[in-house]
Amino acid sequence: MTFGHKPAIGYVINTYPRPSHSFIRREILALEAAGWTIHRFAMRGNAAELVDPADQSEHAQTEHVLESGAIRLGQDFMRAALRAPAAARSALRDARRGGVRHLAYLAEGARVANRARALGISHLHAHFGTNSTDVARHAARLAGIGYSFTAHGPEEFDAPRALRLGDKLAGARFAVAISHYGRSQLCRWVDHRHWDRIHVVHCGIEPARFPDPPPLPVARPLRLAAIGRFSEQKGFLALLPALAAARRNADIRLTLVGDGELRPEIEALIAAHALGDAVTLTGWLDEAGVRGQLAASHALVLPSFAEGLPMVVMEAMAQGRPVLATAIAGVPELVRPGETGWLVPAGDEAGLGEAMVALAATPVEVMAGMGLNGRARVLAHHDVAAEAEKLGALFAAACRGQAA
Which domains, ranges and CATH numbers included, belong to the chain? Predict the structure, then answer.
């Protein structure tokens, strides 16, 4: 099954779509606009979490593997084993090394392999070097095709040995990192002779969705937006005490966009620091809602402890907003101190608070200039169509049986 003479590609993702994974949707749509046929495989979906119509549409187009049920997955493995017994024995030995969970990944991979054969898919690409890549790796072996994956971080870099990241890299036709920092981390876990298989392809934005940026609010107080899943890696539990300290010296308001498992702790900190009149929790918003919150803010604050290359920073910069962020992972590849924003050490609550006070004292016209610098930078380096073209070239080479 091809379109415009380009091979069909199967995308493999653990849970898809999710509100925080809009970058995958944009990448898929950009590839499809360039003539690629993309079939979406996810182990599971979470329709109840989706508020954006674009995510709801993706959910309808995605084949959710676990909906087949355990019996059907077992039958899929038997069918794949009958078709390719040597590959099945090799995959089974490999899966047993990882324990029961990896036997489940093998069954899921068998389902993907059988569907890949039926759909004429020539190559599998996983997002995240976690269990998604385990499934793609098993499926590729059983289907007799190649696989690749995009590593985002921080999960892959937190437990590279447990995830057998080196094995995944060695077996892949190629691998993608979303930043140069991420590529450096992948290089740590594979022999130097495989480094040329590891490429940087940035996550991207759609420039057409970001016309001339809205003007920054003229009136004070300083309005900040923070956007992301309420999880330990995002650093919101450090942001709130820092905000409380900063408000002793400056009038600052914060809007938190997102939700997640740490919401009770976040609400407790808001109460403990008497921030009820200063912090607004919106829950998850669709893309238009996120853009609206950024437009109403002077700057984005990203207090993360661990990241890949945050899409929200790109979106804020595209809207002409300066960024206050922690200097981790690929973030310094986007945020340039004094040019597009401010950087502080991760976990430094005092430094974060001081930076917010400094931001509050910065004239609006200076902030606007930094925002325009950031906009120019992100439009030049993170156009999703250009990044999808890079990825498409890698797919084309992989389907010819060679690493690009």
Answer: 8-204+383-399 (3.40.50.2000), 207-381 (3.40.50.2000)
